[in-house]
């Protein structure tokens, strides 16, 4: 996450209130537009990180249900892990490579910086805002998941340990499983981009691509299903939270699109996991 750290330092250099900066127009210089977006990103990160300080009962209940749901999914981690690992010979090499490198931090942030750059130099506000949403959400979710993985110290499937082996702050790759970092980044960019489209099939395609890192990591024995489920849900919560903040503060002008996908945790005899209702 060194590139993410560099981006975070860059954003920290624009800590003045965004309300003191005029919204960019077609005549605004590239530099002033960049400062405005960097400031917006920084405000989004601060909002997301400090939001738990303002949570009420229902917010804690929702977050608690995420952990309860994850625990329920974890009950089947051994069986689901065996299933995914057995699919490894059948998964195309290109898919494995894409899943690994797409959410690799250095490639991930470079790609997203390029997306933002296109919006910046073409003065396309929607693309710029999407880039701001991805970058601020990725830095927030990315660093929080790194701290969580270190704190939990959960053994990876390939370690040969059972799913309930934990060595907090062990600091080794073998005990760095929960949550899945590749899933966090993959779902962050997928959810951020999918929110910009009205077409249901476009959304399905985007989420499918975003899920490849999670699937590839389970197939190669790097993560349990519960690592992936928690990572995906956590990413969605972070992206939605920052997106609502950017709209509430009126930092960008393009209209709010109707919510076409509702994400819910489902736990029943026939459904376990995150379900998106279109």
Structure write-up:
- Helices cover 63% and strands 4% of the residues.
- With 278 residues, it is mainly α.
- The longest helix has 28 residues, at 125-152.
- The model has no long low-confidence stretch (mean pLDDT 84).
Fold topology:
Elements: H1 2-12, H2 30-50, H3 57-74, H4 77-86, H5 93-102, H6 105-122, H7 125-152, H8 181-194, H9 200-219, H10 225-248, E1 262-267, E2 272-277
Antiparallel strand pairs: 1-2
What's this entry about, in short?
This protein has 278 residues and is mainly α. It has 10 helices and 2 strands, in the order ααααααααααββ.
Distance between the termini: 33 Å
H and E order: HHHHHHHHHHEE
Shape: globular
Cross-sheet strand order for the largest sheet = 1-2
What is the number of strand segments?
Answer: 2
Keywords:
278 residues, mainly alpha, two-stranded antiparallel ribbon, 10 helices, 4% strand, globular
């Amino acid at each position: 996450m060194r590139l993410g750290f560099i981006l975070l330092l860059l954003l920290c250099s624009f800590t003045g209130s965004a309300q003191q900066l005029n919204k960019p127009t077609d005549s605004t210089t590239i530099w002033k537009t960049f400062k405005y977006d960097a400031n917006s990103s920084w405000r989004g990160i601060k909002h997301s990180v400090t939001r738990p300080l303002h949570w009420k009962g229902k917010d804690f209940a929702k977050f608690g249900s995420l952990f309860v749901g994850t625990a329920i999914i974890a009950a089947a981690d051994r069986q689901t892990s065996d299933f995914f690992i057995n699919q490894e010979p059948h998964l195309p090499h290109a898919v494995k490579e894409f899943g690994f490198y797409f959410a690799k931090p250095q490639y991930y942030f470079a790609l997203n910086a390029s997306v933002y750059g296109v919006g910046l130099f073409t003065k396309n506000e929607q693309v710029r805002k999407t880039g701001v949403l991805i970058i601020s959400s990725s830095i927030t979710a990315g660093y929080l998941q790194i701290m969580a993985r270190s704190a939990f110290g959960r053994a990876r499937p390939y370690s040969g340990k059972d799913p309930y082996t934990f060595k907090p702050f062990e600091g080794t790759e073998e005990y760095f499983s929960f949550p899945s970092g590749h899933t966090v980044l993959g779902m962050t960019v997928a959810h951020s981009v999918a929110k910009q489209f009205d077409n249901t099939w476009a959304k399905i395609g985007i989420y499918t691509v975003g899920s490849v890192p999670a699937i590839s990591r389970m197939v190669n024995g790097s993560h349990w299903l519960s690592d992936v489920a928690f990572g995906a849900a956590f990413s969605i919560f972070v992206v939605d939270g920052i997106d609502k903040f950017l709209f509430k503060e009126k930092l960008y002008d393009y209209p709010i699109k109707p919510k076409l996908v509702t994400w819910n945790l489902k736990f029943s005899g026939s459904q376990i996991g995150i379900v998106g209702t279109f």
